[in-house]
Amino acid sequence: MEQSRTQSSLDGSVLVLNRSYMAVHVISVRRAMVQLYRDIAEVIHVEDGHYYNYDFEAWLEMSEFLAADEEQTQPHEEWIQSVNFSILVPRIIRLNSYNQVPRLTLRFNRRNLFARDQNTCQYCGRQLTARELSFDHVIPRCRDGKTTWENVVCCCLNCNSKKGDQLLADAGMRLIQKPKRPQQSPILKVKLDNPKYEVWRTFLKGRSLSLDA
Ligand SMILES: [Zn+2]
Fold first, then answer.
1. Domains defined along the chain, listed by start
2. Whether the Cβ atoms of residue 177 and residue 208 lie closer than 8 Å to each other
3. What is the per-residue pLDDT across 79-104, written as a single tens digit (0 to 9) for each?
4. Does pTM surpass 0.70?
5. How far is the CA of 19 from the centre of ligand 1 (A)?
6. Which of 27, 128, 141, 189 could form a disulfide with 31 if both were Cys (CB 3.0 to 4.6 A apart)?
7. pLDDT at 11
8. Would you tell me how many other CB atoms lie within 10 Å of the CB of residue 55?
9. Ligand 1 center to residue 188 CA distance, Å?
Protein backbone atom coordinates (compact mmCIF):
# COMPACT_ATOMS: atom_id res chain seq x y z
CA MET A 1 0.00 0.00 0.00
CA GLU A 2 1.40 3.41 -0.90
CA GLN A 3 2.56 5.93 1.63
CA SER A 4 -0.26 8.35 0.80
CA ARG A 5 -2.95 5.85 1.73
CA THR A 6 -1.31 5.17 5.07
CA GLN A 7 -1.06 8.91 5.53
CA SER A 8 -4.78 9.47 4.94
CA SER A 9 -5.63 6.50 7.21
CA LEU A 10 -3.71 8.18 10.01
CA ASP A 11 -5.73 11.36 9.56
CA GLY A 12 -9.03 9.57 10.20
CA SER A 13 -10.86 9.63 13.51
CA VAL A 14 -11.31 7.23 16.39
CA LEU A 15 -14.05 7.29 19.01
CA VAL A 16 -12.68 7.03 22.54
CA LEU A 17 -14.67 5.30 25.28
CA ASN A 18 -13.95 5.43 28.98
CA ARG A 19 -13.62 2.24 31.01
CA SER A 20 -17.41 2.07 31.31
CA TYR A 21 -17.87 2.15 27.52
CA MET A 22 -19.11 5.72 27.51
CA ALA A 23 -18.05 7.93 24.58
CA VAL A 24 -15.74 10.67 25.84
CA HIS A 25 -13.69 12.01 22.90
CA VAL A 26 -12.91 11.75 19.25
CA ILE A 27 -9.19 11.68 18.42
CA SER A 28 -7.00 11.10 15.38
CA VAL A 29 -5.96 7.60 14.34
CA ARG A 30 -2.38 8.70 14.94
CA ARG A 31 -3.04 9.47 18.61
CA ALA A 32 -5.15 6.36 19.06
CA MET A 33 -2.33 4.17 17.76
CA VAL A 34 0.08 5.68 20.28
CA GLN A 35 -2.35 4.97 23.12
CA LEU A 36 -2.82 1.39 21.95
CA TYR A 37 0.88 0.82 21.59
CA ARG A 38 1.50 2.17 25.10
CA ASP A 39 -1.23 -0.08 26.46
CA ILE A 40 -3.26 2.89 27.70
CA ALA A 41 -6.18 1.72 25.56
CA GLU A 42 -7.56 -1.31 23.77
CA VAL A 43 -9.43 -1.71 20.49
CA ILE A 44 -13.17 -2.28 20.49
CA HIS A 45 -14.09 -4.08 17.30
CA VAL A 46 -17.75 -4.28 16.38
CA GLU A 47 -18.83 -7.25 14.32
CA ASP A 48 -22.38 -8.42 13.66
CA GLY A 49 -23.70 -6.27 16.48
CA HIS A 50 -21.29 -7.73 19.04
CA TYR A 51 -18.14 -6.06 20.22
CA TYR A 52 -14.80 -7.54 21.06
CA ASN A 53 -11.79 -6.20 22.96
CA TYR A 54 -8.23 -6.46 21.69
CA ASP A 55 -4.96 -5.20 23.13
CA PHE A 56 -2.30 -4.04 20.67
CA GLU A 57 -0.72 -7.48 20.20
CA ALA A 58 -4.06 -9.19 19.72
CA TRP A 59 -5.19 -6.49 17.30
CA LEU A 60 -2.06 -6.94 15.26
CA GLU A 61 -2.75 -10.67 15.03
CA MET A 62 -6.37 -10.04 14.16
CA SER A 63 -5.25 -7.61 11.43
CA GLU A 64 -2.93 -10.21 9.94
CA PHE A 65 -5.76 -12.69 9.98
CA LEU A 66 -8.13 -10.28 8.24
CA ALA A 67 -5.52 -9.17 5.71
CA ALA A 68 -4.95 -12.78 4.68
CA ASP A 69 -8.55 -13.12 3.64
CA GLU A 70 -8.94 -10.43 1.01
CA GLU A 71 -12.50 -11.42 0.19
CA GLN A 72 -13.54 -10.43 3.68
CA THR A 73 -12.16 -6.89 3.53
CA GLN A 74 -14.75 -4.14 3.58
CA PRO A 75 -14.58 -1.17 1.18
CA HIS A 76 -14.46 1.40 4.00
CA GLU A 77 -11.73 -0.37 5.96
CA GLU A 78 -8.39 1.43 6.15
CA TRP A 79 -4.97 0.03 6.81
CA ILE A 80 -1.69 1.33 8.13
CA GLN A 81 1.18 -0.20 6.29
CA SER A 82 4.66 -0.39 7.73
CA VAL A 83 7.72 -2.35 6.72
CA ASN A 84 7.01 -5.14 9.17
CA PHE A 85 3.25 -5.28 9.42
CA SER A 86 -0.06 -3.96 8.23
CA ILE A 87 -2.65 -3.09 10.80
CA LEU A 88 -6.33 -2.42 10.40
CA VAL A 89 -7.25 1.10 11.50
CA PRO A 90 -9.44 0.81 14.61
CA ARG A 91 -12.58 2.93 14.75
CA ILE A 92 -13.17 2.70 18.50
CA ILE A 93 -10.78 2.41 21.43
CA ARG A 94 -11.46 2.07 25.15
CA LEU A 95 -9.25 3.62 27.80
CA ASN A 96 -8.05 1.00 30.28
CA SER A 97 -8.09 3.09 33.43
CA TYR A 98 -9.90 6.36 32.71
CA ASN A 99 -13.38 6.25 34.14
CA GLN A 100 -14.48 9.86 34.32
CA VAL A 101 -17.40 11.29 32.43
CA PRO A 102 -16.31 14.68 31.15
CA ARG A 103 -18.95 17.26 30.54
CA LEU A 104 -19.18 17.66 26.81
CA THR A 105 -19.60 21.08 25.36
CA LEU A 106 -20.25 22.02 21.80
CA ARG A 107 -17.26 24.01 20.64
CA PHE A 108 -17.89 27.15 18.67
CA ASN A 109 -15.18 27.04 16.07
CA ARG A 110 -14.60 27.35 12.36
CA ARG A 111 -14.75 23.61 11.67
CA ASN A 112 -18.05 23.13 13.46
CA LEU A 113 -19.51 26.27 11.90
CA PHE A 114 -18.59 25.18 8.36
CA ALA A 115 -19.99 21.70 9.06
CA ARG A 116 -23.24 23.18 10.39
CA ASP A 117 -23.64 25.25 7.21
CA GLN A 118 -22.41 22.37 5.04
CA ASN A 119 -19.67 24.54 3.54
CA THR A 120 -22.38 26.62 1.90
CA CYS A 121 -22.33 30.41 1.71
CA GLN A 122 -25.40 31.46 3.67
CA TYR A 123 -25.93 34.46 1.38
CA CYS A 124 -25.53 33.17 -2.18
CA GLY A 125 -25.95 29.44 -1.52
CA ARG A 126 -22.73 28.34 -3.21
CA GLN A 127 -21.08 25.25 -1.74
CA LEU A 128 -17.30 25.63 -1.64
CA THR A 129 -14.21 24.13 -0.08
CA ALA A 130 -13.18 25.35 3.38
CA ARG A 131 -10.33 27.32 1.81
CA GLU A 132 -12.72 29.34 -0.32
CA LEU A 133 -14.95 30.18 2.61
CA SER A 134 -14.92 32.64 5.42
CA PHE A 135 -17.40 33.50 8.13
CA ASP A 136 -19.47 36.57 8.70
CA HIS A 137 -21.16 38.28 11.64
CA VAL A 138 -24.75 38.83 10.42
CA ILE A 139 -25.02 41.82 12.74
CA PRO A 140 -21.48 43.22 12.44
CA ARG A 141 -19.31 43.33 15.53
CA CYS A 142 -19.00 47.10 15.19
CA ARG A 143 -22.75 47.21 15.78
CA ASP A 144 -22.54 44.98 18.81
CA GLY A 145 -23.13 41.73 16.95
CA LYS A 146 -22.12 38.76 19.07
CA THR A 147 -19.89 35.84 18.15
CA THR A 148 -22.53 33.18 18.62
CA TRP A 149 -24.14 30.34 16.65
CA GLU A 150 -27.11 32.63 16.04
CA ASN A 151 -25.08 35.51 14.61
CA VAL A 152 -22.19 33.96 12.69
CA VAL A 153 -22.53 32.19 9.35
CA CYS A 154 -20.35 30.58 6.76
CA CYS A 155 -19.98 32.75 3.64
CA CYS A 156 -17.94 32.99 0.46
CA LEU A 157 -15.21 35.59 0.05
CA ASN A 158 -17.26 37.56 -2.50
CA CYS A 159 -20.30 37.89 -0.26
CA ASN A 160 -18.06 38.65 2.68
CA SER A 161 -16.48 41.64 0.99
CA LYS A 162 -19.77 42.75 -0.53
CA LYS A 163 -21.42 42.84 2.88
CA GLY A 164 -18.50 44.31 4.79
CA ASP A 165 -19.63 46.03 7.98
CA GLN A 166 -23.19 46.63 6.84
CA LEU A 167 -26.45 45.25 8.11
CA LEU A 168 -28.16 42.83 5.72
CA ALA A 169 -30.82 45.31 4.64
CA ASP A 170 -28.23 47.99 3.91
CA ALA A 171 -26.20 45.56 1.81
CA GLY A 172 -29.32 44.34 0.01
CA MET A 173 -28.54 40.76 1.00
CA ARG A 174 -30.53 37.93 2.57
CA LEU A 175 -29.74 34.79 4.54
CA ILE A 176 -30.75 31.51 2.94
CA GLN A 177 -31.66 30.20 6.42
CA LYS A 178 -31.72 31.48 9.98
CA PRO A 179 -28.54 30.47 11.84
CA LYS A 180 -29.15 28.32 14.93
CA ARG A 181 -27.19 26.61 17.63
CA PRO A 182 -26.90 22.96 16.46
CA GLN A 183 -28.49 20.19 18.51
CA GLN A 184 -25.61 17.86 17.79
CA SER A 185 -21.93 18.35 17.05
CA PRO A 186 -22.03 19.23 13.31
CA ILE A 187 -18.73 17.53 12.60
CA LEU A 188 -19.88 14.39 14.33
CA LYS A 189 -23.06 14.46 12.28
CA VAL A 190 -21.04 14.64 9.06
CA LYS A 191 -18.85 11.75 10.22
CA LEU A 192 -21.81 9.55 11.12
CA ASP A 193 -23.02 9.80 7.53
CA ASN A 194 -19.77 8.14 6.46
CA PRO A 195 -19.92 4.30 6.55
CA LYS A 196 -16.42 4.30 8.08
CA TYR A 197 -17.84 5.62 11.33
CA GLU A 198 -21.15 3.75 11.32
CA VAL A 199 -19.92 1.54 14.18
CA TRP A 200 -19.76 4.58 16.50
CA ARG A 201 -23.54 4.71 16.72
CA THR A 202 -23.62 1.79 19.15
CA PHE A 203 -21.80 3.88 21.73
CA LEU A 204 -23.23 7.31 21.05
CA LYS A 205 -26.73 7.00 22.40
CA GLY A 206 -27.37 10.05 24.55
CA ARG A 207 -23.79 11.29 24.10
CA SER A 208 -23.93 12.72 20.62
CA LEU A 209 -25.38 16.14 21.37
CA SER A 210 -22.11 17.81 22.08
CA LEU A 211 -19.33 15.34 21.47
CA ASP A 212 -16.81 17.41 19.59
CA ALA A 213 -15.36 15.42 16.75
ZN1 LIG B 1 -21.66 33.94 -1.26
1. 3-104+186-204 (no CATH), 110-171 (1.10.30.50)
2. no
3. 998 888 889 999 999 999 988 887 77
4. yes
5. 46
6. 27
7. 80
8. 13
9. 25
